[in-house]
Amino acid sequence: MAATLADVAARAGVSSATVSRVLNGNYPVAEATRRRVTEALRELNYVVNGPARALAAATSEVLGVLVNDVSDPFFGVLASGIQREAAEADLLTMICHTAGSADDELRYMELLLRQRARAIVVTGGGPEDGGHRRRTADLVRQSVARGTRVVFCGREAPPDSEAASVVFDNHGGAAALTRLLLAAGHRRIAYLTGPPHHTTSSARVAGARQALTEAGIDPDSCLWIRSGFSRAAGLEAGRELVRAAVDCTAVVAGNDLTASGVIASLRACGVRVPEDVSVAGFDDLPVAVDVVPELTTVRLPLRSGAVTAGRIATGTERTAPGVVVRMPAELRSRESVAAPGGGLSGAVGLPRER
Amino acid sequence: MAATLADVAARAGVSSATVSRVLNGNYPVAEATRRRVTEALRELNYVVNGPARALAAATSEVLGVLVNDVSDPFFGVLASGIQREAAEADLLTMICHTAGSADDELRYMELLLRQRARAIVVTGGGPEDGGHRRRTADLVRQSVARGTRVVFCGREAPPDSEAASVVFDNHGGAAALTRLLLAAGHRRIAYLTGPPHHTTSSARVAGARQALTEAGIDPDSCLWIRSGFSRAAGLEAGRELVRAAVDCTAVVAGNDLTASGVIASLRACGVRVPEDVSVAGFDDLPVAVDVVPELTTVRLPLRSGAVTAGRIATGTERTAPGVVVRMPAELRSRESVAAPGGGLSGAVGLPRER
DNA sequence: TTGTACGCGTTATCAT
DNA sequence: ATGATAACGCGTACAA
Hints:
Two copies of one chain form a homodimer.
Chain A: H1 5-12, H2 16-24, H3 31-43, H4 50-57, E1 62-67, H5 73-88, E2 92-97, H6 102-114, E3 119-123, H7 130-145, E4 149-153, E5 164-168, H8 170-184, E6 189-192, H9 199-214, E7 223-225, H10 231-243, E8 250-252, H11 256-268, E9 278-280, H12 287-290, E10 297-299, H13 302-314, E11 324-327, E12 330-332, H14 344-347
Parallel strand pairs in A: 1-2, 1-3, 3-4, 4-5, 5-11, 6-7, 6-8, 8-9
Antiparallel strand pairs in A: 10-12
Chain B binds a DNA duplex through helix 2 and helix 4.
């Protein structure tokens, strides 16, 4: 039913090789023939058969991007940055949503590998579990062996793998943020840690603990509360903090999304930010300046990290195998952090305000 | 370098046909041979060559989803619903971000077509431009001819196409919402229309205008302001409304995201919602109940619409060609709409509050 | 139950 | 400049 190269060739009275040449423009073709072929192409509504091309040329035009959550703006920024580079290199970006599941991550990597994708970019942090790491390393090895470039953007590639990585300074950023809070006078801080056993969460927690320790404060005198990275997680955590009338003057959320949730639920409970309690985020996504009050947070150069990852993936930028590109983090001090106020436990019970 | 069927066959001492049979399990294979083959498969780290398989079998395991914006939760809900069904049918979902560009939409459709994707689901509204419609119709025709099913989820398929559609009652929902506002006593309403020349925007505007007309109110006595569907668009529109001290008692945003932006910027300007001005949204995304005050909006059954679209796309649910499945809209009356207050122009200039 | 052999639609290498 | 033709790796009638 669908027209093939041969059909087009017959119609134009040439060989299929000539049609292929017209299509790819990599060999000289007489102007007259080219026109006849182009005509036939149009008349028959010819559409390249990708699989056949990929089989013959041993390469495809697909670049796969793995994201934890398609509807999280963190990944939106990453995905669109990568995509821009891919488009630049005439590659089709396909985004695969792993829902944070380690299994799905592996499944999608394998499926992209099957498709002989030109490259795979794995974004965001990942499970710290050794088994997963090992299986990932295996897949990376196979990918590279088959010519599929693999780039990690947001965590380090498994050790000894050929894959490049672009990583953000979660550790340093978290430490700087904590230092800012300490400098403002906060001592009783509640940390929402993000999902457990996750590279990003762990790095941020470690950074914060280090800053505390260096300031001579026992990290365990602070509160460490598990949460997700979603806005809903922040809402819930905020409500829980209020319910338990937790004794703290500052809340450090795992990221901006969570922070926005915390602020919303604190406000709903009549707790003022930053007068009663300071709140901080991480990432510096657009939401950080949408929120009232504007969020003190840590800026990660997500866009440029994504572009770098994209350039390595497309081959636009050539790097040594296993290279690790480190992107800096930068403090963004805004309104949501101020000097310690009455604290959460003091504010709770006040009349609800609007 | 990469092991092929033949390599595995040699290793296992069988023919490549047998290996293929073991792989696909569609023909009987002796238990002993199966084990030998499985072993060889493992030893050689065999990975199916997708393109080759797609070429031979004339079909692939890919389902493509086109979305306007990967980081918009509206599409997140749609994409994940479709993906669930795809996974159920052992298909790999690939999400393509068109950034709302009509050209990109066509490009991605074509690329998926090239890949001989099993199905393509085009989500969200689209350009109303006739040229785009025609070109889309062409692509749909070609897709269907090549065995790639096409489903639209959020707009109707081009006329006379074989493609199925799942549509949401934007028109009815918008009308119901406007009636609610009218019943509450509002007469001076500012509508943020969403992106121009876009099917979703138009349907919502048309519904609102109809409800106004039916109530004996001249639609042109209301304000119709172009905006986007993003939160940023809402922020900007809100600021603009305040700056111009627009004379209205209610703002109807194009969707929930925009509404949340409007609320944020109104609050930042000291305008109280709903005491001074009522605000309404559309879609009933999770953000609708996150916002303070909770948003009065129109619930669209996005999840179940996505599932339906997914089932049609995977072939799980068989439907007549060109079928249009209509999903209802349902009013969700919450806190953000109340009786008319002082209005925007009245509130502006009041001391900024926190 | 298993093997042989051909076709799927392209690209790329030789000739011409 | 153009045409034959051999891969590319897999699925599947058909034969055994």
